[in-house]
Amino acid sequence: MTETTSQHFAPPSLSSRPQGSRNDAEAPGYDELEDSGEMEVKQVTLRKRTGEVKQHNIKKDGFLTAEMVSSCGSNLRRIGTGLQHLSLPSHNLSDVSVLSTYVHIQKLELPHNKIKDLSCVSHMPYLAILDASHNEISNFFGFQPPKNLKEVNFSHNRMTKMEDLSAYSSLSKMDLGYNSFTEISGLEQCCNLSNLSLAHNKISKISGLGSLPLTHLCLRGNQLERIEGLENLKSLQVLDLSLNSIKSLSGLQNLHLLGSINLEKNLISEIQEYKHIHDLFLLRDINVLGNPVQEQPDYRLAVIFLLQHLTVLDQEKVTAEEKVSSVNKYDPPLDVMAARDHMTHLVYQLMQPQVLYDRTCHTTRGPYFGEENGIDYHYVSEEDFQNMIHMGKFIQTVQYGGHRYGLTRDAIEDVAREGLACCVHMELEGVLSLKNSYFEPRYILVIPTQVERYTGPPEKT
Q1: The organism sits in which domain of life (predicted)?
Q2: What number is the average pLDDT over the span 426-453?
Q3: What is the model's pLDDT at position 75?
Q4: What DSSP element (H or E) covers 339?
Q5: Number of domains in the chain
Q6: Mean pLDDT of all residues in 378-402
Q7: In this structure, are residues 126 and 107 in contact, taking their beta carbons and an 8 Å threshold?
Q8: Domain containing 394: what range?
Q9: Does the pLDDT value for residue 7 go beyond 90?
């Protein structure tokens, strides 16, 4: 017996129903229903006679049935963007052929199951997003291409060979990571493909990418030894080549839109390799953690100097101080060079023995109590003093308190021969005389604040 009921629904809550229901041929288009603001959906329920059991209603292990789809009513919905969305993750499914009757699905998510066959997708002309990751699929795109299919996730499957995808011209994002591909092929006509991941496969050479409009490319965890085949990817902005065996950065120099490069855990060993990407002025982030080049002395400053536009190096922010230090180290301006030379000379000077020699003068007066000849003064007679003057021994002589005092040239030169400086004290007349000699002294003027302490006879101790 057949019973027909009618209900009114607002547009956001439209339920999906299998193709072939009673009013399927007469149903207006989805756009018309949305514009009307109200739609009428007739639900047909077949009542089974007592004792009748139909095979397609029996739940089998791994088989998706219509009842199971209905029971996932909360996962089969029309969301705000207008996508008809069915999500069945982690249901241990191996057969989803029943979905071939759900022709209006636009987003299908079947991750973490045991699916091997996706031929049902051939009957979904409106499908735009497909997630079949973490399954057991070995057939590469084993279905007729939905004309609006834009995003596909086939990661963590069992695919080994890429086939021609020229019929899938709308593809813009594709994840084929964690399969067993050995080469890249079949993508040349994917003129809308902007995001491609082939991470953790067995690819040993970059090829087959042609002039694709890729902005994001991930080849992490393959068997690459060199960077090649990327020169025509003029739109590439983000590149991940980590976990390979790459030794050189050659091959990146023409990718002028690159902003981020990940080369973690490769075999780059020379700082000079960074010269290949010196002219990539939009490059802001590069990661070479786990490469031998990091063992080079002053590695970080050297890279920052070569790539002045970087903001992140090895997952650490590049500071303004590091940029200034790198320039001062590898291409210092003249004022920095002058300051550095001055500091060098000052350090060497301070490393010399710091000894001050107070040279002993000659005098015609007699020693005071406690004074010793040759330590406090050289005590000589008036006649000897005059002879020394005539022989040119003195740099300067003064007369004070009825006695004569003089500093000999030999006293200073003896100190200079040892590479040391001589500290002498003299009156202003001696200073004027010293200025006329070949010595180049530095002067310190000492003016007493209490004159009475320095006049009159010396105090006896």
Answers
A1: Eukaryota
A2: 75
A3: 52
A4: helix 334-351
A5: 1
A6: 84
A7: no
A8: 357-454
A9: no
Q: What is the pLDDT of residue 298?
A: 92
Residue 415 falls within a domain, yes or no?
Answer: yes
Rounded to an integer, the average pLDDT of 335-344 is 77
Residue type for position 7:
Q
- Classified as helix, coil or strand, 131 is strand
For the question of whether the overall pTM of this predicted structure is more than 0.70, the answer is no
Residue 298 resides in a domain:
no
Q: If you average pLDDT over every residue of the chain, what do you get?
A: 81
* Structure token pair of residue 89: 């993750």
d(CA 424, CA 430): 10
User: What's the CA gap between 105 and 362, in Å, rounded?
Assistant: 114
Q: Is 406 helix (H, G, I), strand (E, B) or coil?
A: strand
State residue 272's pLDDT score. Answer: 93
Report percent pLDDT > 90 for the chain.
49
6 located within any domain = no
Q: What is the 3-state secondary structure (H, E, C) of the chain?
A: CEEEEEEEECHHHCCCCCCCCCCCCCCCCHHHHHHHCCEEEEEEEECCCCCCCCHHHCCCCCECCHHHHHHCHHHEEECCCCCEEEECCCCCCCECHHHHHCCCCCEEECCCCCCCCCHHHHHCCCCCEEECCCCCCCCCCCCCCCCCCCEEECCCCCCCCCCCCCCCCCCCEEECCCCCCCCCCCCCCCCCCCEEECCCCCCCCCCCCCCCCCCEEECCCCCCCCCCCCCCCCCCCEEECCCCCCCCCCCCCCCCCCCEEECCCCCCCCHHHHHHHCCCCCCCEEECCCCHHHHCCCHHHHHHHHCCCCCEECCEECCHHHHHHHHHHHCCCHHHHHHHHHHHHHHHHHHCCCCCEECCCEECCCCCCCCCECCCEEECCHHHHHHHHHCCCEEEEEEECCEEEEEEHHHHHHHHHCCCCEECCCCHHHHHHHHCCCCCCCCCCCCCCCHHHHCCCCCCC
Phi, psi for 387 (deg, rounded to 5): -60, -40
> 153, 129 in Cβ contact below 8 A?
no
Label residue 57 by pLDDT band (50, 70, 90). very low
| pLDDT value of position 319 | 95
**Are 308 and 279 in contact, with CB atoms under 8 Å apart?**
no
Instruction: State whether residue 155 is helix, strand or coil.
Output: coil
The confidence band for 233, taking pLDDT boundaries of 50, 70 and 90, is very high
Q: For residue 445, what is the domain's CATH number?
A: 3.40.50.300
> Is 404 a member of any domain?
yes
Q: Which amino acid is at 64?
A: L
Tell me the sheet residues that pair with 404.
Answer: 399
